[in-house]
Amino acid sequence: MKPRVAFLGLGEAAARKLLRSIVVKGLTALMVESLRVAESQGLGRWCYDHLVDTLTGLDGAVVRGLLDGTVAHSVRRVAEMEAAASMRRICPPTRPAATTCCSG
Q1: Residues 68, 17: contact at Cβ < 8 Å?
Q2: Are 35 and 44 in contact (CB under 8 A)?
């Protein structure tokens, strides 16, 4: 990708940095929590591999499909997230961070 100079309005650079931070840190937090619960179920390696496959396959069409699918199926998504939260409560992680399945 060729570098380019961007002239941003007042505050736009800070807003972009904050928005990027929300996405990256939020996504990372979801990955850590997913891996922690997966490890408690003996599925840590599978979950890690699934995350890698999913994230390396992302492009504009996949992102659009994820966003559109979430909106279109929001009622079902709520039920799925409630079930995931129940799993997290029933099977709390035994380690402070998800590192065993993906270290080294």
Answers
A1: no
A2: yes
Per-residue pLDDT of the chain (104 residues; tens, 9 = 90+): 566 666 667 788 889 999 999 999 999 999 999 999 899 889 999 999 999 999 999 999 999 998 998 888 888 878 888 888 887 777 666 655 545 566 55
Domain boundaries, the chain: 12-57, 58-90
Written as six digits, the tokens of 35 are 């891996």
Tokens 């499909």, residue? 65
DSSP at 94: S
**What's the DSSP call for residue 91?**
S
Residue count (the chain): 104
pTM (two decimals): 0.65
**Both structure tokens of 86:** 């129940």
Backbone angles phi, psi at 15, to 5 degrees: -65, -40
Cβ 32 vs Cβ 98: under 8 Å? yes
